[in-house]
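Project standup — Tuesday

K.O.: blocked on the structure for the chain from last sprint. Re-posting the sequence here as requested.
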Amino acid sequence: MRVLYLNPFSQEVSGPDESLRALLGALIPAGIEAHVALPAPGPQVDRYEAIGARTHFVPLATLKRALSPATALYGPQLARSVFAVGQLARAVRADIIHTNMEVLLEGGLAARALRIPHVLHYRGNTLDDPKLVFDALAMMWTATADHIYCISRATAGIFERRGRAAKVEVLYNPIDVRAFAAAERSADVRSALGAAPDRVLVGTVGRIHPRKDLETFIRAAALVAARRADVHFTVVGRAEVPIELDHETSLRNLVRDLSLDGRVTFAGARRDMPAVMAALDVFVLTSRHEGFGRVVAEAMASARPLVVTDEGAPPELVEPERYGLVARPADPADFARQIMRQIDDPAGARERAVRAAERARAFDAADTAQRVRSLYERLAPGGTRT
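H.V.: unblocked you, prediction finished:
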């Protein structure tokens, strides 16, 4: 069976890419011929090809939340993209088009024109504002998709609140659970993250973007650092686009202003995420409106004590007090309190972390791929087009 996947990004750090590659890593050995369409060459190309996917480049029209002068060009760009995607789907004889994020409408429109099934993956956050815009988009998404995967119950709520959930299925993002469970702690990795052997290492992982609310992480770090001289903090991730680069500059200035030089390390992007998670003593996620929180699932699979924002999907994953702790959004004092709970009560932290590792089996990539493969077979029985 041939499936054409549309992915809106072509950058170093991309959650949708990480999740799609994890899925394809299990689908391709099971017989799926995967074709991945990207908007431009980039660092993800070699990573897709290394797992056996074939990559293509087509113009894609990405939806944006913010209006700008470029918004007026969206209609012509979408029309061009629908045509290009349709041509590519015909060229590779795709049985199904699978759009890897809801910001692309061209997959559904091209699939309807070609009369082949379309699967939409809603990988966005839980913030469905402005409401009227999302009302219209939910209507479009459901009209042009045969099936919609939402990455959490929280994101499925966007469709449920509008009475458009008939095609929706919750499918958690897949991870390689075994790789995270098996990773061993490395002194070299801890050193690269800024921690001496005798230090408690508290870290966060993700793009350096305003929505990740790393300001709250740094301000919480200052509060913890004032109480514990043995705690070091690390930010694993990088800034790529202008808004992120500007944000990183402001965060570094904040570290300086809070006298945290030497206590906070900006470690950059890393590819060895199982080793990174194994190196941490406490994992923290301060993001707002997360649709899933892939790094939360990875921390759980690594049996790390964790503190996450009590908003969006992360509380759904950690079930507060059972698998991890939650803190109020944008509240550094509450994050500091919960981090200190994990540090000061190692027995309780360990019990929650062990339970979290068991819970993380629900994110296993092989099981997720089997569910997706079964869907493909129902939508396109018999396989490949000629």
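K.O.: great, moving the ticket to review. The chain has two domains: 2-174+364-379, 177-363. The longest strand covers residues 33-38.
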